[in-house]
Amino acid sequence: MLEVKQVSKVYENQRGVQSIDFSMSRGEIVGFLGPNGAGKTTTMRMITGYLNPTQGTITIDGLSMADHPKKARQKIGYLPETPPLYPELTVGAYLQFIADLRGIPAKEQKSRIGEVVERLGLQGRERQVIRSLSKGYKQRVGLAQAILHQPDLLVLDEPTSGLDPKQIIEIRQLIRELGENHTVLLSTHILPEINTLCNRVLIINQGRIVLDGQPERLAHTMGEAFEVSLEVKGPREAVLEELRGVPGVAGVRELDGEAPKPESNAADSAAESSVADSPDATVKVLVTAAAEEDIREALFYRMAERRYPILSMKKESLSLEDIFLKLTTSEALEGAAGGETASEEVTPDA
Questions:
Q1: Contact 175, 197 (CB under 8 A)
Q2: Which segments show compositional bias classed as Low complexity (predicted)?
Q3: Are 22 and 91 in a shared domain?
Q4: How confident is the model at residue 190 (pLDDT cuts 50, 70, 90)?
Q5: C-alpha distances in Å from residue 73, one per residue of 26, 61, 68, 151
Q6: Could you tell me if residue 273 is inside a domain?
């Protein structure tokens, strides 16, 4: 559906984005992340045809944005961070204006407007002046104009910015529903939205794509070790010894009970040791794999063979927040060390 090949944008001898290269398939909802000034808005404006790239190509459903800009734009719905609304118009008049602007045939306009009004919960507000709407409803009208012409690709820039919690939930649900029939590129600073809505994540920093992957596999993509936290019922030393002997295990670290409390005396320590080595004791550990392979089955079968019940097992991984900070901070530090400065995202004068 969307192909961005080696796209760069330079502003007055300063690079805005550099060699951006990614594609999107039909039906994907892709989260687009990056710190301020990383190049997100510049990239989206080039995808939607508002800016021309300095080099590279952008293709929408096989149509080059450079060679067939009008036809390519017809396949795109765009919601900027600030919805492009006319506050003095009513909701109905505004959508009628957009229908004319988009070249929707006159005989289809009434039914098409009725469909988006119902889909976005705008019934009964067709005669309301846009100026008088809450921010949540203005976002709904902005989404309505973006999907009115039934585009194949939706580009949404911070669609929940500034909304209250109830409005955020409503807009997220709308985006999830839109993703059933559209390809969606979603830019947001709210990282939980990515886990909630997206089946893929792009992270951009200093004008470059630094990560592309599925949210649940980002730690694996970054080469992070596979780790599992366990709570096992059984004698402490025996459990630890068995876990260390499981093929593929690189390390076992006890999560608590590693040392006696400072105020405990020798008798207390002996008593604690006796309890830890009893069959009814429980041991909490973090097990690290030697490679990135999943070792949970091997752990389960070894403990089952030794009759040490696993009371809980949880795969540990970096959160999206951790990954985002790790990538953008390390990239920024590397740029500073090399005497480079992060390019700012410049908005050219209209």
A1: yes
A2: 264-275
A3: yes
A4: confident
A5: 17, 11, 9, 9
A6: no
Q: Between β-strands 183-187 and 153-157, what pairing exists: parallel, antiparallel or unpaired?
A: parallel
In this structure, the strands spanning 55-60 and 63-64 are antiparallel
Please name the helix (run of DSSP H) or strand (run of DSSP E) that holds residue 244, with its range, or none: helix 236-244
Measure Cα distances from 259 to 192, 236, 237, 240 in Å. 37, 13, 14, 15
The CATH number covering residue 72 comes to 3.40.50.300
The per-residue pLDDT for range 76-131, each reduced to its tens digit, is: 999 988 888 999 999 999 999 999 999 999 999 999 999 999 988 899 999 999 99
CATH of the domain at 282: 3.30.70.1340
78 and 102 co-located in one domain: yes
Coil, strand or helix at 339: coil
Please give the Cα distance from 287 to 202 (Å, whole number).
30
Confirm if 60 and 76 have CB atoms less than 8 A apart: yes
Do 228 and 205 reside in the same domain of the chain? no
